[in-house]
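Protocol step 4 of 5: obtain the predicted structure for the target chain.
Materials: sequence only (see below). No template structures provided, no constraints applied. The aim of this step is simply to have a reference model before the mutagenesis design in step 5. Sequence pasted as it appears in the construct record:
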Amino acid sequence: MSIITIADEFARNTILSRAAAWEKSRSMASTELREAINVGIGSLKIGAEHGGLGLGHVSMGKVLKILASADFPFAFSLAVHNAVGGSISEYGSPSQLDRYVRRIQTGELILSVCITEPSAGSDAAAMQTKATRSQGGWRINGSKAWITNAVSADLFLLYAQTDVDAGPAGVAAFLIERECPGLSITAAYDLVGCHSMGLAGVELSDCFVPDEALFARPGEGFKRAMSGIDVARTLVSAMCCGMLESSLAYALKSTSERSAFGSKTIDFQGLQWMLADIATDLSASELLFTAAASKLDRGERATIEAAHAKKFTTKAAFNGIAQCMQLAGARGLLAETPISRHLASAKAAQYLDGTTEIQNVVISRFLQARAV
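Step 4 output (C-alpha cells):
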C-alpha cells in the first residue's frame, strides 16, 4: 500500500471523525499521532538505510496536503515530527541513531523542535536560552515558546546559545528527553484553534545534559536550524492547499444542495464567480508549492520560492476559506464541520515558520539585491 493511500485512509477514517472532539476538549491528539507514526506516516524523511521512506519534498507535501485537508494542526504535528526525525537520521551520532531512530518510527517517541522564545520569534538569532559548559556535559537555562507537540513530546531538539558574543555562531543544538531533570512543560496554550498540535512552552532550569546529547556543535546549530526553514515554509504551503481544496469541495456541495428563490444557490452568477476566484487561488497555490518543492528536490536553494509560496498560500487559504464558509451559509459556522477549523488554522499558518511580513522581508531583500 502506498504512503498516499495510507495517509488518505488515515485522514478519512481517523482524523475526520475525531478532529472536532480534539478542538472541543482543547487537547492534543497524542494517541492518534502515535498511531499515524506507527503506520508509517512518521518516517517520511528518515532515510531508507534506517528503515524510513526518504521522501522528496514534492511527495512529502502531497502526504501532508491530504492530512491537512482533514485537520491542519494534526498534519503540522506530523510535519514537525518528520522534520526532526529526518534530521536525526541524517546528522545523529552513532549512539543517537542507535538510541532513537527505531523508536521514532514506532510511535514510542513523539518529537519536537525548540527554537522560538518569548522574545525571539522570527528573529531566531536573538535567542537567549543559554547552554554553559559543565563537567561531562552542558547546563541549559532559558525559556522556549510556541513549541509544537510540547504537550506530549518525548524528545526535544533544542537550540541554545553557548556564547552570546558569538551571535549565530554560538548556537548549538541538543537532544533532550522529556524526563531530563530541569526541563518542564507549561500548560497548553488556550487558542482559538489548532489545539491538536499541542502548543506549549518549554522551561529549562539548570537542566544538565551529557556530552552525548550534543546534536550540533556551536557554529553548526544555527546553520542547521535555518537550513530547514525553506522546507518548512514549502510544506506549510502544501498544507494550506489541502485546507483550501477541502473547503472548496464543501462549498460546492453546499451550494449544489441549498436552494433559494426557486434555484440552487450554485446557479447564481455571483456565487459562481466567488467559487471561480477560490479555484484560481487554489491552482496558483499548488503551482507555487510545486515550484518550491521541485527546486528543493533538485538540491537547489529555494528561499525565494518558499517565501512566495508561504506568503501567497496562507493568504489565499485564509481568504478563500472565509468565502467558502459564506457560501455554505450558517452551517459553515458549525464546529463539527472541517471548514470552521480550517479558518482558524489558516490564520495560524500565517505565523508558523515566519510571518507573512517576514516573507515580504525575504522577497524584498532579493529584489533589492537584484536591482543593484
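Step 4 remarks: The domain at 228-371 is CATH 1.20.140.10 (Butyryl-CoA Dehydrogenase, subunit A; domain 3). The mean pLDDT is 95.
Proceed to step 5.
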